[in-house]
Amino acid sequence: MSLSLRRRSLAAFAFLEGLIVPVPVELLLAPLCRAQPRRCWHYATLATLASVAGGLVAYMAARWGMEALVMPLVERWGYQVELRQTLVLFQQWGPWVLAITGLTPIPYKLATLAAGASGVSLLSFIVAALIGRASRYYLVAWVARQTGRLPAHYAWIGWIILGLFLCAIIALF
């Protein structure tokens, strides 16, 4: 897989994961970082920015179209209770909830939707999302770098993960 295709695939995967797809970016990020340890920080940065961009779209959808755009999807996924619980957390803690989602089991999508629905300011959202996503992806990149280079004959793992990702997107719609 060429470097350009790796970057585009990771960016698309992270953007869609931040927006709608319930498949963790780490499934693609870790093998990429292991295959090219020198580029792990580049990949972590790319994943962070793309995920925050996807989260920003979800934030805006919740901010200005919660009932019409967001709730039908939340109901389809069966996340109504979790979204209500996350909204309660936002009422208590504000954007800090989004900042710590990178290190908690709270799905990032729920946190971005709750941030938009609860009226968190755009600047607070972006800062908190960058903190949360960067803490997660840089940790994954660091661990992947520390565990060593992935042997070349395992490069097919990335293609399988990308294929599963595309299947997940098709299954959701």
From TrEMBL:
Q: List the GO cellular component terms.
A: plasma membrane
Its domain of life reads Bacteria
> Locate the VTT domain: which residues?
42-141
InterPro entries per record: DedA_domain, VTT_dom
User: Which residue spans traverse the membrane?
Assistant: 12-33, 40-62, 110-132, 153-172
Entry keywords, A to Z: Membrane, Transmembrane, Transmembrane helix
One Pfam annotation reads VTT_dom
This protein is called: Membrane protein YqaA, SNARE-associated domain
